[in-house]
Known about the structure:
By secondary structure, this protein is mainly α. It has a single domain (31-394), classed as Alpha/alpha barrel (Glycosyltransferase), CATH 1.50.10. The chain is built from 14 helices and 6 strands. It has a two-stranded antiparallel sheet. Residues 18-27 have low confidence and may be disordered.
Amino acid sequence: xxxxxxxxxxxxxxxxxxxxxxxxxxxxxxxxxxxxxxxxxxxxxxxxxxxxxxxxxxxxxxxxxxxxxxxxxxxxxxxxxxxxxxxxxxxxxxxxxxxxxxxxxxxxxxxxxxxxxxxxxxxxxxxxxxxxxxxxxxxxxxxxxxxxxxxxxxxxxxxxxxxxxxxxxxxxxxxxxxxxxxxxxxxxxxxxxxxxxxxxxxxxxxxxxxxxxxxxxxxxxxxxxxxxxxxxxxxxxxxxxxxxxxxxxxxxxxxxxxxxxxxxxxxxxxxxxxxxxxxxxxxxxxxxxxxxxxxxxxxxxxxxxxxxxxxxxxxxxxxxxxxxxxxxxxxxxxxxxxxxxxxxxxxxxxxxxxxxxxxxxxxxxxxxxxxxxxxxxxxxxxxxxxxxxxxxxxxx
Length: 396
């Protein structure tokens, strides 16, 4: 009888322990990472990347391609993320490698950025159509107009002008192509562009970089002595530091310019830290103007800096302190720019829609008023994509 009583108690204890263990497992499940949450939000809002955020037709667009590339990086978690980017590219590239809505004669360096997704797909699938398409962008860069100092014009319609944006649009692609196709001339082109742009746009007093430089000094926005534009635009510097950390992925360890561009990255990131808003932990649209009337905390530039800081620290280009800085800044970015809608999906707010210089019919003068009055968007590709990249790099 005593034996049966002990047996009963043992069975009850075992059952309770099992239930407790199961309950503990269920309640300690890890939260979904921000990279996944934001990618899922994008795909919930649009089942087709090319029509994301209200677009009415597909285009060969640098920002849509960037979002596709960012989401594709999650493909090791679920193949649906890679399929999202591939489906969009396949809708634009036919079996002969012809790319819809791409006009090489415009010599628009923005058109080159989506070619990185062609490289990704060619390496994954071996499909020759991607390789054929790649050739068009290499030929564009072979013939793209340059300044007398050897820097790429931003576009044919912006002669003699180098913009920070263009460094990201073209140089990581050229560096990756150089490695994949054993064509080292493009390494030299990419590093020359990074170094030249730094030299021509640098403000020695702050270490920050002006948005653009006009070699001819003829543009109304250009300083008549230096050719530099008047202000430090947050996203422009974001494009620049992202370009450097991405080019370094492919640049040979013994390349003659490697040490110099790492030094440029270090100095530029140090300068960016000095203008980080101490209250929010984010960065302003016009970097050095703080809470001046009209200025605002801007999401895309903030996300780009976090990506560059985290990746730079991880790869050993930056001081290890940048790993913690990036992690803290990511948390600050979530508090400042992420809101949850009634549908339960996260949205990213306060993203500058677009900023440029010159042009027609409305001439963009590069003034403080110009940068602070351009449209501000929610869930803009140019903010959401670097947010996902920053989340991946910080493992958030």
